[in-house]
Amino acid sequence: MRRPADFINALLNSAASPYLRVSAWLLALLVAMGLGYLRVSTDAEYAFASTIILPVVVIAWIGGRKDGIAFSALASLMWMSTDLLADRLFSAAWIPVLNGLTRFAVYALIAWLVAALRQALLKEQLLARHDTLTGLLNRRAFFEVGQEETQRARRYGHALGIAFLDLDNFKRLNDTQGHEAGDRALKAVAAALLGSLRATDQVARLGGDEFAVVLPEATFAAATEAGNKLAGAINHALRDYPPVSVSVGVAWFEQVTAGFDEMVKAADTLMYEIKETGKQGVRSKHFPANGPAPDETENP
Length: 300
Description:
Blueprint: H1 4-12, H2 18-41, H3 53-63, H4 65-85, H5 95-129, H6 139-156, E1 160-168, H7 170-177, H8 179-194, E2 202-207, E3 210-216, H9 220-237, E4 245-253, H10 260-276, E5 281-287, E6 295-299
Parallel strand pairs: 4-5
Antiparallel strand pairs: 1-3, 1-4, 2-3, 5-6
């Protein structure tokens, strides 16, 4: 059963499809023409001016501000035309035009407000799921994505890798060069991560100087290579921020049986093993579905 939050997220992300946009326009135009026909066929006895607000809202939500205002203009023109076609009597010739302009102002205002509301909600959704400093996923979003990947890997029998990264000597950088230097270093790390990962990988800043990556459908060799690649890219990015470096733990699960929290903890434990043996290195471990003790690799 879908949660209300999932339904809201689906509505917020509904504007990306051109097919949906075209379909909304076609449906809105059919509604407008239908209302116009009813108005003319009843000699303007029945007014449906408020009903047209519904397709205005839909168009503005899916297509944005420009589409909403454009449809508002068409809807207003339709009402003005039906007033004239229905042979309504007006005390002055300019009254239908004024009515049309008034309706356009109301419809356009509604379209503008709906589009602005959607943009505000999208911004809030982005801020709720992303770290404000680096732009990466935050801890909450990372664990949501991780749980989805865990379920998918379990359903299709795919392997799953988790990389846990922690910066070495980061506190010393903050203490000696200030927090602004620390923030620049974190941004450099984020850029290095994004530039070193596949499109299917998910990366997050969990907090402080800790980062994590989900590596879906990667082999043990590929996950280990990814850990080494990340370490190399980050250490290169941190060359201007001595003495900071990175320690990386990579846990690779041949078959996903544990929960995502436990998998992240396994990668975290591997990372701390690097810390205990001198920092700045990569340690990966293969957790098999069944069989002998896990394989391990380590690169200082």
